[in-house]
Write a structure and sequence with these properties.
Layout (H helix, E strand, L loop, with lengths): L8 H8 L12 H17 L3 E7 L9 E6 L3 H17 L6 E3 L6 E5 L3 E6 L1 H7 L1 H5 L12
Parallel strand pairs: 2-5
Antiparallel strand pairs: 1-2, 3-4, 4-5
Length: 145
Amino acid sequence: MIPVPPGTPRKKAAVAGPRKRTRGTPLPSERLDELQKIIVTCLEDDKAENVVALDLAGRASFADRMVIATGLADRQISAMAMHLEDKLSAAGLKRIQIEGSGGSDWVLIDAGDIVIHLFKPEAREMYALERMWGPDLDEEPVPPG
């Protein structure tokens, strides 16, 4: 007999450990380019500051692209998230998940192969995702002399 972990379904899931995320077939790069352009244009229309798009293909298992932008106020960031959800839905993406849109320093939008981070300036500086995922980290260190 297999022992059954006690407790609620949530506790049982915690005991079982994280599920492995299986991703469907990746989107073609032309489709990713199209979606990235929609995202960047929407953010620029909403007056987002310092919009940065990073290519994560082959470097991350959770997404192929990442877009990072800064908003100055909670309302602006929430509005940017809502507008992005509308634009991406109109572009054919149906499973868009948004975390933190209830007035926080960081909103995460998971659009499948593209992940969007909307930050307040202080939070963006603290988390420094551009430095963590930027292309300069892929370069080999130059040996001295």
